[in-house]
Write a structure and sequence with these properties.
It is a single chain. With about 240 residues, the chain is of the alpha+beta class. It folds into 3 domains: about 55 residues, Structural Genomics Hypothetical 15.5 Kd Protein In mrcA-pckA Intergenic Region, Chain A, CATH 3.10.290.10; about 90 residues, Alpha-Beta Plaits, CATH 3.30.70; about 80 residues, Alpha-L RNA-binding motif (Alpha-Beta Plaits). It is about 20% helix and about 25% strand. The protein has 7 helices and 16 strands. Strands 6, 7, 8, 9, 12, 13, 14, 15 and 16 form a 9-stranded mixed β-sheet that branches. It is elongated.
C-alpha cells in the first residue's frame, strides 16, 4: 500500500473487496465514491482519500490458507465417530466460513487449500485446466524396475486409463509423483494395479502452493506474490 497515487481498481483489489475487473464493474454501476464524489474508470487515489462502496454494506473479503491435513481426518462429510477438517479447526483463529477445495482421503496427509472463495473451485479441480499436484509416496514393498515407466504412461484403473504423469524414484520404497487430474484414490488405485502397496501418501504441492515445513493440523495464510501467482494461474487477478 505504498504505491500511491494508485488506480482505484487496484486499490479495491488490494483490499480484497473485488477483482480489478470486478472493481471496474462497480465503478460502471456507480457504486464507488472517492471523497464523496462518484468515481470514474481510471481514477487514481492518494493514501488519505476516503473510498466508499455504496449498495454493499458487507463486501466479500476472500481468504486463502494452506493447511496440513493430518492422517485420520476426513475432508468432507464425516461418518459416525469421524472428524472432518471443519470440526478439526473450529477452535482456531481461521475464519469460520472457509472450506476445503478438493479432497485428500482419510489415510493420506498433506496440503489442502482452505478458502471462502467458491469461485476457484472449478478452475482448481477440473482436470481440463491441467494444474499440477505433487505427492511423496512410500510403499511397503520394493518398487518394481518398470514402475516409473508404467506409471508415467498411464495406468488402467477399473476401465479408465489415467493421464500421463511425472514420476521421480527417490529410493527403493519411495517416489514422487506429479498429477494433473484427481480421480478418487487415484494414486492408491494406480499403485494397486501395479502390485505396489502404499505405506504413506503425502501431498506436498498444489500448483505453486507448497506444504514445505507446515506441521500436521497447522495452517498459514496464502498472500502476497504467492497468492497473486496462484490466482493468475486460475485465470483470476485478485491482487496486483
Amino acid at each position: 500500500m505504498n504505491e500511491f497515487p494508485m488506480r482505484i481498481n487496484k486499490y479495491l483489489a488490494l483490499k480484497k473487496i473485488s477483482t480489478r475487473r470486478g472493481a471496474d464493474e462497480l465503478i460502471k454501476e456507480k457504486k464507488v465514491f472517492i471523497n464523496g464524489k462518484l468515481a470514474t474508470l481510471g481514477d487514481k487515489i492518494n493514501e488519505k482519500d476516503k473510498v466508499e462502496i455504496k449498495g454493499d454494506k458487507n463486501p466479500k473479503i476472500y481468504v486463502y490458507f494452506a493447511y496440513h491435513k493430518p492422517i485420520g481426518i476426513i475432508t468432507h462429510s464425516p461418518g459416525e465417530k469421524e472428524t472432518d477438517i471443519k470440526e478439526n479447526i473450529q477452535n482456531s483463529k481461521m475464519p469460520k466460513d472457509v472450506f476445503p477445495i478438493g479432497r485428500l482421503d482419510k489415510d493420506s496427509h498433506g496440503l489442502i487449500i482452505l478458502t471462502n472463495d467458491g469461485r476457484i473451485t472449478d478452475q482448481l479441480l477440473n482436470p481440463k485446466y491441467i494444474h499440477e499436484k505433487e505427492y511423496i509416496v512410500k510403499t511397503s514393498n520394493k518398487l518394481r524396475s518398470n514402475f516409473k515407466q508404467k506409471m508415467e504412461a498411464g495406468v488402467n484403473i477399473e476401465g479408465y486409463k489415467t493421464k500421463k504423469c511425472k514420476v521421480q524414484i527417490i529410493n527403493d520404497f519411495t517416489f514422487k509423483i506429479i498429477l494433473t487430474e484427481g480421480k478418487k484414490h487415484q494414486i492408491r488405485r494406480m499403485c494397486s494395479a501395479l502390485f505396489q502397496e502404499i505405506a504413506d501418501l503425502k501431498r506436498i504441492r498444489i500448483m505453486n502452493i507448497k506444504l514445505d515445513s507446515l506441521k500436521p493440523n497447522a495452517y498459514r495464510e496464502i498472500n502476497g506474490k504467492e497468492l497473486n501467482i496462484f490466482l493468475e494461474s486460475l485465470g483470476m487477478k485478485e491482487n496486483l
